[in-house]
Every structure is written in C-alpha cells, then in structure tokens.
Amino acid sequence: MENRFWRIEGRPEGTDFESALALVEEPLAPLGEGEIRIRNAMLSMDAGTRLWLTDREDGYQPPLPVGAPMTGLVVGEVIESRADGFAEGDLVRAFGVWGALSQVDAVMSGAMKLDPTVGDRRAWFGPLGMNGWTALWGIEQTGAAKPGERVLVSAAAGATGVLAVRIARLLGCEAWGIAGGAEKCRYLVEEQGCAGAVDYKAGKVGAQLDAAGGFDVYFDNVGGPVLDEVLTRMNHYGRIAVCGLLSDYGSGERTAPREYDQVLMRRLRVEGFFSPDFMDQGERLTARLRTWVGSGDLTMPYDVTQGLENTLDAYAKLFTGDNIGKVIVELEQ
Ligand SMILES: NC(=O)c1ccc[n+]([C@@H]2O[C@H](COP(=O)([O-])OP(=O)(O)OC[C@H]3O[C@@H](n4cnc5c(N)ncnc54)[C@H](OP(=O)(O)O)[C@@H]3O)[C@@H](O)[C@H]2O)c1
What we know:
Shape: globular
CATH architecture of the largest domain: Alpha-Beta Complex
Oligomer: single chain
Bound molecules: NADP nicotinamide-adenine-dinucleotide phosphate
Strand content: 25-35%
Number of domains: 2
Number of strands: 15
C-alpha cells in the first residue's frame, strides 16, 4: 500500500516550510507486531513541533531526522491492526505522520481509542486533546491558580491560549490575554470573557500591562522580551507556568530574561511543564474537560484547512499569527 506524506528534506529557515518539506509517495512496509495502520482524517498543527524541525539536541526530545516523515498528532480510523486492544474500525488519536496514512507502534505513538459518539471530533485536538490537557494542567497544577486570582495568558488567541483563558475563568479566576493585533484582543474580551487584553504588536507593552495591574499567574506560551515586561508586573508569590517559548522556535534565539532577579524580589515560582509527562493521567483530565465541553462551558474556535497538499500553509499560521483557535488539516476520506 502506498502512502502520501510530508517528508523532512532539510531544516526550515523561519516560516519557509516549502523549502524544507516535500510531499512524497512511498510504499508502506508490512504491518509489524504491535503496530496499527490509521487512515488519517485530521492532522493537528502544533507550534511545539517547530522545535523538532531544528538541530537542537537539548530540547525536551531529540530533533526529527532529515529524511524522516513529519510527525504530528492525527485522528483517524484504524484500517489494520497487529496491536492488542486495537481493531479495524476504531477511532483513534496518536502521534502519527503528516500523511494520508499513519503506520505506528500503538504504544510508542501514545495511540488512544476515542469515543465515536462525541459529535464534533475536532474536539479531540482541542478541549479534549493535548491542548486541553496542557491548559488545564498549566493553570491548575503548575500555575496553582485560585479563585479570584488574576491570570495572564500569552498567545491567548491560539489553541492552547484560548483554552487556558477559558479554564482560568471556569476555575473562578480573572483572565487576561496577550495577543497580536486589535482584532485578537477584541475577540479575547468580547468572545472569551477576558477582563482585558494586551496587544503586543501595538508596542508599549509595559504601559499596557501597567494599566491592567499585577498578575498572580502567568501562563506563558511565548517567552522572549514580553516575559521581561511581565516579570516586573507579577504580584508577590506569583507563579509563572512555562508552557512554551514560541518566540524562540523559529528564530534560533534563546529566551534570556533580563528581569530574572524579579524571581527573588517578588518571590516568584517559575516552572516548566510538558504534556507527555502527564499522559498517564489523560483519561482523568479528559473526563474533567468533557464535563465542561458537555455543559457548553468549554468551546473553542477551529481554523480548518482542507487537503494534505495545503498542510504547510496551515502550519505557517501558527508562526505568522494568522489563526484564532486550533489549526487543523482535514483530509479526504
Ligand atoms: N508544554 C506543553 O506540553 C505544551 C503542549 C502544547 C502546546 N504547548 C505550547 O503552547 C504554545 C502554543 O502552541 P499552539 O500549538 O497552541 O499554537 P497556537 O497558540 O494555536 O498558535 C500560535 C500563536 O502564537 C503566536 N505567536 C507566534 N509567533 C509568536 C512570537 N514570535 N511571539 C509571540 N507570539 C507568537 C501567534 O499569535 P499572535 O497573533 O498572538 O502572535 C500564533 O497564533 C507553544 O509555545 C507550544 O509549544 C506546550
């Protein structure tokens, strides 16, 4: 059986993904013991995967080698299985391949059977997916947000950010967002119930934050210079939950906070967290998130692109800021 998929041909510069990835066709090997073959229905576009396309060996996982298929989360139907617990016809989510098909080891790929009765299956990449787990964990566990506290979220109009904002509000906090552009800031206030939003592309970020007042929790998706502005506006005993460092991913720069001394001056706790570390708690987290999804309290927008051949355009949105909510590629079935 042939597979059509995106292969890594080199290391991308900035958002020039066209030069670094190629859509190719190759035959699949026969299914090995423990493997499943998935017909991908949807591909999840995740900003963190940009790090896997660099040469960095000191990331939270090794880079993907040049010549390998591009890896990412997929949702689809099992069409063949040699793995215990998985049968033809099962709807699953797994770390698969940006392609028509994913052939993966069920355990190593974190394959998980999904409830086919969930009406909007895009939710498996949104509130019921890794982004949902990450937002809940970062706000509640790492950020230790308490009712009444003021929570600030960066990249707040993106997938992880919108969910962090919503969850902070559901836990009784006052949510604030940082995002690029007036339209995203309007969206965060008017449609996501933020108390206010800071447009980091409009300049004078410090003054905008001063007008907002101090924060108890910073859910940071971005790092970079904005982190310095926030460090000097944190309330004493505040917590910074480091979810991502988006401003570094494509630039080759490293976040190096000039205002690091505020960690001592304000007695802050700064802690990184990483969703695969709590994958074993996925069922518990999903059950909790599902209650909010079921009651209609946890919704999010989707930015859907059709067709495998348009994957790179969809992916670039994460780095140009052209998305609101979760970026997904839907494939022909
Ligand atoms: N720790 C974990 O386990 C975990 C799990 C999932 C995701 N994450 C992290 O969550 C973050 C968001 O990822 P996502 O997949 O949900 O993407 P996303 O938020 O849907 O999209 C990325 C958004 O980031 C903003 N952005 C892009 N480049 C930026 C820059 N240089 N400076 C400031 N903002 C920038 C853009 O919005 P603007 O218009 O606002 O610029 C863009 O819309 C990433 O840092 C990712 O690594 C972490």
